[in-house]
Amino acid sequence: MTLDEALAQCPVVAIVRGVKPDEAADHAAALLEAGVLGVEVPLNSPEPIESIRRLAAEFGERMVVGAGTVLTPERVEAVAEVGGRIIVSPNTQPSVIRRSLELGLDPAPGFATASEAFTAIDAGARHLKLFPAVTYGPAHVKQIRAVLPPEAVVWAVGGVGPDSMAEWWAAGARAFGLGGELYRAGQSVAETRDKARRVMEAVRALG
To answer: Catalytic residue positions?
Structure first.
């Protein structure tokens, strides 16, 4: 599954920071059951490449799987080798974006300013992650959308949850990266399932 295909069905990517390889599949299955089709394993999690390998092997045709906190082209290559498809970063690093595209992956670099957004676009990115979103607010998205190309997909990530998704959506955000609102290290699969169901209620309310 591609990133665009996943987001067309559900505009949410679950950030499972801290997940361990032997528990990753169970939590991904709970997310998939609820309707969340994107999973990002941050590279500062325990054995993240192994978690991505297992998730891509088991769920790659039904979900889009990849890495977060990707800071170097070398880490992009490591993710690609195990079947990851999305490359999410907290910053705008053209070399990471270009290497992702060379390998057929979908980069989602982090940005805050218009300059960073256009640096990412010039490097080939189409998905742009406003991070940390809560610092800037929906009004920031509304204003910056006016100058971005129409094909740019703005993500709201960081401090966003089901109670605020409608406001972000109205401002022009078209994807959400949700961390603790979906997963916290050590939580049970049942908690993941319950959180995912709540998030999906908010998604359905977006229309």
So the answer is: 40, 129
